[in-house]
Amino acid sequence: MRVFVTGASGSIGSVVVPELVAAGHEVLGLVRSDAAAAYVTSAGGTPLRGDLTDLDSLRDGATQADGVINLAFSNDWSNLEQGIDDEGRAVQTLAAALAGSGKPFVHAGLTPMMPGHISTEEDPNTTTGPVGGRGRTADAVLALAAEGVRSSVVRLPRSVHQRGAQYGFCTVLINAARETGVSAYVGDGTQRWPAVDRRDAGVLFRIALEEAEPGTVLHPVADEGDTMKTLAETIGGVLSVPVESVPPERFGVIGRMFALDMPSSSALTQKRFGWQPTGPSLIDDLAAGGYPE
Fold first, then answer.
1. Fewer CB within 10 Å of terminal CB in the chain, N or C?
2. Both 70 and 211 in a single domain?
3. Same domain for 173 and 75
4. Are residues 97 and 179 in the same domain?
5. Domain harbouring 238, CATH code
6. Which helix (H) or strand (E) holds 1?
7. pLDDT tens digits for 219-276?
8. For 149-177, what is the mean pLDDT?
9. 214 shares its domain with 259
10. Sign (positive/negative) of CA torsion 246, 251, 253, 259?
11. Does 187 share its domain with 84?
12. How far is CA 268 from its chain centroid?
């Protein structure tokens, strides 16, 4: 299968592309820079220049491919609304190019935020709050099942991690601890964050592309929920800084999310698709240190 991948050199794309190539797929990867193009080429794919706001490049990539995996998202937390709007327009463009084709369209979403409840694949997307727009976009992808598209949404947990490279939301905690000299958590710190090793997540995107029925939701979750206080204590121990509670405003616009309890399960995904996470836990990766500068 020839697969068009947006965000091909990003945190998730950089593991999805080699996963697809190893499985015998041909990859056309959307890239914004020479360095990104070089990565996609070295991983066995073919680069296509453009970005999430370049709608012509999205149409071009989708029409050339037998399937699409949409991973690109602006992680500029200072301009979150713009990033959500850009994602929505990109999905509309890809959807129009794929309508009636029967081709697979796999989209990266977020596990629901349902305080006090371990969310499952059967729970609705979160469509309110600071990232509610992303949930509405995910709903639009799932609705494409009625328009002749084999659409699915892989709902990622808050921390998609790999030791020495990526830590998801915990990267924000690490950077804040370095800048302020305090490893902080919000409130009493009992709120839980789910997590997964990014290589395990990459495998599930490939499985979704190959196997998911139209309108399917999948969860690549390994750790159902580590408390924010435990995460902050682990980071504080590595960086040798004190651990303290802070108000959510300390983390800007995403502080409201940090205050929420949002554990999640992948039990249904594991049962339906035989996917099994094998990578280390988030706590193990954080405790090992070696955080990138």
1. C
2. yes
3. no
4. no
5. 3.90.25.10
6. none
7. 999 999 999 999 999 999 999 999 999 999 999 888 888 999 999 999 999 999 999 9
8. 96
9. no
10. negative
11. no
12. 19
260 and 168 share one domain = yes
Q: Give the other-Cβ count within 10 Å of 278's Cβ.
A: 10
Phi-psi region of 179 (alpha: psi -120 to 50; beta: other; left: phi over 0): alpha
Amino acid present at 77? W
pTM of the entire predicted model: 0.96
In a domain, 292, yes or no: no
Which tokens hold the place of 146?
């009625």
CA distance 257 to 172: 12
pLDDT confidence of residue 3 = 98
36 vs 29: CA distance, rounded Å: 9
DSSP 8-class letter at 117: S
Given a cut of 80, whether residue 283 has pLDDT beyond it is: yes
**Phi-psi map region of 66: left, alpha, beta (phi>0 left; psi -120 to 50 alpha):** alpha
44 sits in which H/E element: none
Which DSSP state fits 279?
S
User: Could you read off the pLDDT of 10-46 as tens digits, one per residue?
Assistant: 999 999 999 999 999 999 999 999 999 999 999 999 9
Full DSSP string of 218-254? E---SEEEEEHHHHHHHHHHHHT--EEEE-GGGGGGG
Model confidence pLDDT, tens digit, residues 225-237: 999 999 999 999 9
Same domain, residue pair 170 and 249: yes
State how many domains the chain has. 2
Angle, vertex CA 215, rays to CA 44 and CA 55, nearest 5: 55
